[in-house]
Amino acid sequence: MENITFNMSELHQYGTAYFDYLALRKHFFVDTLGWDIPHNDIYEMDQYDNPLAYYSLVLHDGKVIGGARGMPTTSSWGDYTYMLRDAVQGKLAEIPKSIMGDEIRTPKVWECTRLVISDDLESAEDRQKCLALVVDGLARTASKEGAAELIALMRPPFMRALRQLGYNANLIGKPYQNREDGRKYGVLSMSAKPVTRIQPAERPTAKVLPIHQDLELRQTA
């Protein structure tokens, strides 16, 4: 497995990887979970896929098997900023305005969205490795651009997985139950640099379930 990171001005350097990531998102979020989000027969793409976004993808034998999107909380593109701030402002009906309290707008904080890991990865070890590469790539990119913290809307149990990857992760705000899938989601905050990587000898590695069971990053567009 290998990690690649890029923004829209650089995506041409990686062949079809960006579009393969959009296709992976469509397969999972639309075809598997049935979310009502913008898509066509091949790709899922929304208003946050704009020139302000950065991407961290994982390839295996040239195939995209995982990825996530990030952007600074200072972002503004047309009528939208970043997902959580737009939710607080009431622009995204499925996410409550109270999801994270006050708006965050600082170059020191980035938002992570659209995390997905391919169901082709059947072993917990492979999923854990893919997750680590996705998260590390995005955190490294954010840190390079001056960020010290990342926030994301996801299932609270994911906090443990982030901590086992070495990141200082915490829940901010109160989780809510999504009306579409009945699951709880909350805003997690994590350091942009790992504090320490927990070794298996010190603590058993958390079982990383398929993304639809334990690693979902919920976004409403």
From TrEMBL:
This entry's Enzyme Commission designation comes to: 2.3.1.184
What Gene Ontology biological process does one annotation of this record name? quorum sensing
Q: Which UniProt keywords apply?
A: Autoinducer synthesis, Quorum sensing, S-adenosyl-L-methionine, Transferase
| Species name | Profundibacter amoris
- Signal peptide residues are none
One MF term in the entry's GO annotations = N-acyl homoserine lactone synthase activity
Q: InterPro entries given for it? A: Acyl_CoA_acyltransferase, Autoind_synthase
Q: What's this protein's name?
A: Acyl-homoserine-lactone synthase
Homology family:
Belongs to the autoinducer synthase family.
Question: Which reaction is recorded as catalysed by this protein?
Answer: a fatty acyl-[ACP] + S-adenosyl-L-methionine = an N-acyl-L-homoserine lactone + S-methyl-5'-thioadenosine + holo-[ACP] + H(+)
Q: What class of enzyme is it?
A: transferase
* Organism phylogeny: Bacteria, Pseudomonadati, Pseudomonadota, Alphaproteobacteria, Rhodobacterales
